[in-house]
Amino acid sequence: MKSWFSWLPMTMFLAVIWVLLADMPLGMGTLAFAGAASLIIVLMSRRLRPFLARPRRIWVILKLAGIVLADTFQSNVAAVKIILGYPKIEYTPGFVSVPLTLRDPHGLAILAAIINYAPGTLWAGFPESGEYVQLHILDLPQETDWAAFITERYEKPLKEIFE
């Protein structure tokens, strides 16, 4: 029974997006087409996903979302200061390798998105071994600080959620 309902949230989400984006009057025809089209898309795309994510610990997810929002805001402010040159700040761009213990592909995808959300940081490389991730940092005062920052603030909660 669980497998039948695993596709329902995405189907409903796609149907709502279709109705909101369609430049048509809201009626039974629009709703029927949105529902049918989204159901077909979801059922056909299930074969593209070898396995589904199984996130756990909703409180850790909410805490991580708050941390990401705060860090992204702080990073935006720092990037604007660097770009506008206020005050005259010397910055040193560089690359840093962060060792990873996270192995879940969904967790790694979210980690990549989190790192790329903040201006000034970029996911620059990921070897097949998955032992580390290479990041480009706009202002890199010390490598060890960044590795510990990424590991403690992002990787640790993602391991709790996905592993």
TrEMBL record:
Keyword line: Cell membrane, Membrane, Transmembrane, Transmembrane helix
The record lists the membrane-crossing segments as 12-43, 64-86
Q: Where in the cell is it found?
A: Cell membrane
Q: One GO MF term, please? A: monoatomic cation transmembrane transporter activity
| Its membrane topology | Multi-pass membrane protein
- GO annotations of cellular component type: plasma membrane
InterPro entries xrefs: Cation_antiport_E (IPR002758)
Protein family membership: Belongs to the CPA3 antiporters (TC 2.A.63) subunit E family.
Which protein are we looking at?
Putative K(+)/H(+) antiporter subunit E
Origin organism is: Advenella mimigardefordensis (strain DSM 17166 / LMG 22922 / DPN7)
Q: What lineage does the source organism belong to?
A: Bacteria, Pseudomonadati, Pseudomonadota, Betaproteobacteria, Burkholderiales
